[in-house]
Amino acid sequence: MSYAQVARIAGYPRHARMVSKAMSRSAEPLPWHRVIKSDYTLAFEVGSDGYNRQKDLLENEGTRFVGRKVIPLDSDDENDLDKLLWGPTE
To answer: What's the number of CA atoms in the CB half-sphere (13 Å) around residue 67?
Structure first.
């Protein structure tokens, strides 16, 4: 899910940067690694610690990459922000 998609679903279209700032300032731990750029790449510089950490976390969850592009997992719950960011509740 991209920063723009999170903003749109939260009711703030065209406020993708606000999503990034809100996530970084949250007192609660958020699944930051599940949010990517709208071109399906990671927001960090390739090879940086942040890039490697996010890529590892996504791959550990089953996300695939083709080059630098994230191949999104299929979801029938495109508009369910909680499920997309936090995963299914059991």
So the answer is: 4
**Model pTM score:** 0.73
Domains of the chain, residue spans:
3-86
Q: In the Cβ-directed half-sphere of 47, how many Cα atoms lie within 13 Å?
A: 0
Q: In Å, what is the CA distance from 56 to each residue of 2, 11, 24, 27, 76?
A: 18, 30, 19, 24, 25
- In degrees and rounded to multiples of 5, residue 39 shows phi and psi of -90, 15
For 32-76, what is each residue's pLDDT tens digit? Answer: 999 999 899 999 999 999 999 999 999 998 899 999 999 876 655
The span from the CA of 3 to the CA of 20, in Å, is 7
